[in-house]
Amino acid sequence: MLSAVRVKEIKKFLENLNIESSDYELFDEALTHPSFNFEVNRENGHDYERLEFLGDSVVRLCVSNFLFDRFKDYDEGKLTKIRSYLVSDEFLYKTALKLNLNEYINIGPNEEKDGGRKKESILACAMEAVFGAIYKDLGYSVVFAFIYNIYDNLGENLKEILYSYNSKEILQQYTQGKNKDLPDYEIIKESGKAHNRVYEVCVSYNGEELGYGIGKTKKEAEKNAAFAAIKKLNITQGC
């Protein structure tokens, strides 16, 4: 039985999503990290893992449908590449933040101290679980409309987003096309606490510095550095 306070929180979350549902326990489950039940000793408590499993398939189907309709002249290979980003943890994490999902998720006290409310892995999984909950409660047409709206709102920014996501691959294809050498990524600075690190990376090729990037992970910083490089080299058409 959910507390009145928790019901109020779930109602507000659903209102923010423009989702009409009274199954507050289902959405509480979608917004509960496994650490919460374990650390607060909530007996018979459910967490988001089962709904995440369902939501993973739901979002892939909805995004595939969206891309199939939106990009009618793209072949299977290009559609697959675009989908790989739009269902990635990175994109789902950013979507969760835009929807303020982190404000409503239940996490254990220790996970809270460790910065769990802003962790990519946790929010991406919770976002998938919310998709699963919408599908389970309201059906495919509602969840498809909800997900379609998320991606449709990207508009013309979608192309730049995809350039950014594929930037390391694009840059590598460019350098290997020159002389088969790979670009070199170097961490030039690390800062911040252990659970909130910030990395600064420089990418170079044949001794020439091409771009700098900053990120919460080494991978993100390298990707951002590569994106700066491909913009400098004007090779974004490789996406």
Structure description:
This protein has 239 residues and is mainly α. The protein has two domains: 4-154, Orthogonal Bundle (Ribonuclease iii, N-terminal Endonuclease Domain, Chain A); 166-238, Double Stranded RNA Binding Domain. Helices cover 61% and strands 10% of the residues. It is built from twelve helices and three strands. A hairpin with a 2-residue loop joins strand 2 and strand 3. The longest helix is centred in the first third of the chain and has 22 residues, at 49-70. The chain starts with a helix and ends in a 6-residue tail after the last helix. The model has no long low-confidence stretch (mean pLDDT 90).
The Rg value, from CA coordinates, equals 20 Å
**Number of helices, where a helix is a run of at least 4 consecutive DSSP H or I residues:** 12
Determine and state the CATH class of the largest domain: Mainly Alpha
Unreliable runs: none
CATH topology of the largest domain: Ribonuclease iii, N-terminal Endonuclease Domain, Chain A
The computed structural class is mainly alpha
Q: Please indicate the percent range of residues in DSSP E strands (runs of 2 or more).
A: 5-15%
Number of domains: 2
* Helix coverage percent: 55-70%
Shape: flat
CATH H-level superfamily title of the largest domain:
Ribonuclease III domain
In the sheet with the most strands, the strands line up as 1-2-3
Second CATH tier, the architecture of the largest domain: Orthogonal Bundle
Major beta-sheet overview: 3 strands, antiparallel
Order of helices and strands: HHHHHHHHHHHEEEH
Distance between the termini: 49 Å
Mean pLDDT: 90
